[in-house]
Amino acid sequence: MATTEGPESPRTRRNSNKNILTRIRHGQSTGRAISRAAEISEALLQERDQQAQWHGIPVLLQRLYDSSHLNSDLSQIHSIIKEVSPFLSMEAMSFVTEDRRTVQKSTYPNTYTFDLFGGVELLVEILMRPTLTTQTNVPKMSDDLVKDCLSVLYNCCICMEGVTKSLASRDDFVMFLFTLMSNKKTFLQTATLIEDILGVRKEMIQLEDIPNLPSLVQSFNQQQLANFCRILSVTISEPEMGNDDKHTLLAKNAQQRANPCPSHSEVNQVALLNIPGFIERLCKLATRKVSEASGPSSLLLELQDWYTWLDNALVLDALMQMATEDAEQSSTESSDESSLATSPLRHRLPQSMKIVHEIMYKVEVLYVLCVLLIGRQRNQVHKMLAEFKLIPGLNNLFDKLIWRKQTSSHVLHGQNQNCDCSPEISFKIQFLRLLQSFSDHHENKYLLLNAQELNELSAISLKASIPEVEAFVNTDRNLICDGKKGLLTRLLSVMKKEPAESSFRFWQARAVESFLRGATSYADQVFLLKRGLLEHILFSIIDSGCKSRDVLQSYFDLLGELMKFNIDAFKRFNKYVNTEEKFQTFMTQINSSLVDSNMLVRCIILSLDRFESQIENVSVVEVLSECSLLSYMARVENRHAFLFRLVNIINVQILTQENVSCLNTSLVVLMLARRRDKLAFCLKALREKEYAEKYPGCLLNNLHTLLRFWQRHYLNKDKDSTCLENSSCISFTYWKETVSVLLDSDPTSLCAIASYIDEAYMDLGRDFLQV
User: Where would you find the membrane-spanning parts of this chain (predicted)?
Assistant: First the structure.
């Protein structure tokens, strides 16, 4: 019988499709009505499929749901997942290979459809179902089925951040994934999925909550442990603050008062250190030598060709999976760290791929070690790194790194800026950050030298008739570098060859500076002076044309540590800066950004003060009279000008770890003035400057507020106070006394800031500390 109804119009079909999608979205958000494909008839789904271009995904999901009961045929489930998987993997590969400038404009309809019709939720149920039943005869899922389920979920996460966030919000699923890591055949897929999930999770997981964490980590071979470090990096690092205002010291102090207990990341660091053999294995991974099957010239070309492709974590993981599977087919899997190196596949891969893959391992391992080195358990970590000879191992590895001029594609970046570095660049920067953390204010810094270099330091001390520092005397020579050069000397060699704008210069200078930081050591300074470091720094600041503020700041800081209290360094400075033009260029660089150069200014002022107390020494008198830098700073009006600018460029609301040094440099100027009974004269000069600039009270009120903050900040921080004392050679007691004198409320005190502010402009009572 013919129907009286005509054919359905395209517009009607489109409206029907929208109705289905609307009903599903409503059901998923409210928990009522339709929420997945299984609740819609297969006939309706097939009818709408072609018009909506769903590629049969809703129908496949409905069949998957019908087939996925507790005692279902797992082979049928696997067959359906294999059928739907190519639609999603195709979009995931498209995502990771797209130009990143256009990737946000792209849409991934297959992934969207899969998630919308309940595919993600269904796969999670399939994976977790065996763990949620008390039945003992439940069919065991094959490793291949688990891997394919995880791969589909990972592909969905790649294309849709909403899927990743949804999975991250499920604590039960996250902990379940860690249990899958004990299976070597599903490890890779599990690790990559966990990494993505933890990257968007709002609350950091607690490693202690992972079932049998110590035995799990101990079961990993070296290859797996290196990949596990990628996950650990998310769990032991403090989360990014986001808003710049939250990076201020005021905000950080308020946060510490509100949360005095150790953070999740600190608790996780302790959990890792309690795993037997963990640090030792990381040291072995970090110092494992990179294969060098091909010559260096062809290697450089290959690295450039492979850079774009290999910089994607998904492809790197696929490469590792290929190597693992090949090794399994050729021999019984070994937990020995050389198993990957002996894999037949590795002999077929381009040499550059082998090296980059090894480098990617080391980037993650060095990052974990670096974070642990700057954590609360620093001394414990230091002891273990020394015991397991990390530094000698890195020294032996140093020549395997590729120090070369960067291509034009390498954009200079700052130390806190996220960048898209190639693996080799990331490796070198992480390597330098580790050296910086290792040497900074720690006696183990002398492990960066070899026996011959330690003997040289002894000879320098002997010639100068000064005692060797305690840290040097206590250095265990069984743990130092071997070979012709120590790690510090090798670093100096490559540092002097770097192009002017290379971002490596920043990290290299930071690493060398950390060796000098702490209590000033004349022998350490001379050791570096003899290797031309001062001349290299001055060339970089004056003659190289370097414009990078980050690099210049690091060189200013390094120069300050190198010259502090060292008469030989000032002689060398005067020999290099031998014309008025050079001196003016140098001072222009200093004055162009006082936040960057204030540590050097502090060094010059402190050194001048000491030299002026040693006028019985002919050599000192000669330098005082001839050195243009010391002569410039000896003029009191120049010191006052620096003080005025330093106080003027900061206030409590914008103080950060980066610019708080300006406050301390200001305080050094005031302390030295007080020591010479010139503090009242100094405060009077500031008052006169205020009136000359036509804003009376502004500068002194700001200084008063800054010093109140200083008291609150430093009197509760032992580490910071020790650093101030060591770097200035002024007792912390004198720091505290000077601040108290300046903040005295007695209006008759000639050394109190309040005495120099007219009552009409006085604003000393504001409570800035409550945020």
Answer: none
CA dihedral defined by 37, 38, 39, 41, rounded to 10 degrees?
A: 90
Least trusted range by pLDDT, from 119-128, 295-304, 317-326: 295-304
Q: Are 339 and 407 in contact (CB under 8 A)?
A: no
Question: Per-residue pLDDT tens for 529-564?
Answer: 999 999 999 999 999 888 889 999 999 999 999 999
Within 8 A by CB and 6+ apart from 636, the residues are none
- Cα→Cα distances 515→34, 462, 483, 605, Å: 65, 21, 20, 22
DSSP-H helix ranges across 160-186: 161-168, 171-180
Residue 29: count other Cβ atoms within 10 Å of its Cβ. 9
Say whether pLDDT at 455 is over 60: yes
**pLDDT at position 42 over 70:** no
Q: Which residue is it, tokens 């109705």?
A: 19
Please say whether the beta carbons of 531 and 492 come within 8 A.
yes
Instruction: Count other C-beta atoms under 10 Å from residue 470's C-beta.
Output: 10
- For the purposes of burial, counting CB atoms within 10 Å of the CB of 215, is it exposed (0-12), middle (13-18) or buried (19 or more)? exposed
Cβ atoms 429, 503 nearer than 8 A:
yes
Q: Among 38-47, 54-63, 99-108, 515-524, which is the least confidently predicted range? A: 99-108
Measured distance CA(79)–CA(490) in Å, rounded? 57
Helical ranges in 53-108 per DSSP H: 57-67, 74-97
Q: Which of 194, 180, 266, 268 is nearest to 227 (CA)?
A: 194
Q: Where does the pLDDT of residue 625 fall: very low under 50, low under 70, confident under 90, or very high at 90 and above?
A: very high
- Tell me how far apart the alpha carbons of residues 337 and 283 are, in angstroms, rounded to a whole number: 12
Comparison of pLDDT for 675 and 332, the residue scoring more = 675
The residue type found at 488 is L
What are the residues facing 481 on neighbouring strands?
A: 450
From first CA to last CA, the distance across the chain in angstroms is: 80
Rounded CA gap, 279 and 275, in Å?
Answer: 8
Residue 344 predicted with pLDDT over 70: no
Mean pLDDT of 346-361: 63
Q: Look up residue 360 and give its two tokens.
A: 């990617």
CB 428 within 8 A of CB 486: no
Distance CA 14, CA 389 (A): 68
Residue of 52, 218, 44, 28 lying closest to 115 (CA atoms): 28
| Residues 155-168: tens digit of each pLDDT | 999 889 999 999 99
